[in-house]
Amino acid sequence: MADSNVLKPEPPKRALSAYTYFCLEWRERIMQMPDASSASVDVASLLADLWGNLSSGDRLVYRQIALADLVRFEKERAQYEGYKGHSFLRFRRTRIRFPRPY
């Protein structure tokens, strides 16, 4: 019989993408502009345009942050699955694509 007083750990938070980290950083900058619209659709479309026009060198910064977050997630997931004793969770495989050097 399982002990009901044992606290089970929370599952790890998923790793965020490079685009998500970009949006988290730039959303504050956009909202502080004097002519910024408060509509989330306008902000989201502006963020998508900025991300699309970002050079591959600038994107690399966010990809490195996302890769570090992915390593953190994999480590926490391994610890969580070790606690549970088996791997019953199905995680989508996350693949980081780096720009080609040419």
Automatic annotation (TrEMBL):
<dbReference type="GO" id="GO:0003677">
    <property type="term" value="F:DNA binding"/>
</dbReference>
<feature type="DNA-binding region" description="HMG box">
    <location>
        <begin position="12"/>
        <end position="81"/>
    </location>
</feature>
<dbReference type="GO" id="GO:0005634">
    <property type="term" value="C:nucleus"/>
</dbReference>
<keyword id="KW-0539">Nucleus</keyword>
<dbReference type="Pfam" id="PF00505">
    <property type="entry name" value="HMG_box"/>
</dbReference>
<keyword id="KW-0238">DNA-binding</keyword>
<dbReference type="InterPro" id="IPR009071">
    <property type="entry name" value="HMG_box_dom"/>
</dbReference>
<dbReference type="InterPro" id="IPR036910">
    <property type="entry name" value="HMG_box_dom_sf"/>
</dbReference>
<protein>
    <recommendedName>
        <fullName>HMG box domain-containing protein</fullName>
    </recommendedName>
</protein>
<feature type="domain" description="HMG box">
    <location>
        <begin position="12"/>
        <end position="81"/>
    </location>
</feature>
<dbReference type="InterPro" id="IPR050342">
    <property type="entry name" value="HMGB"/>
</dbReference>
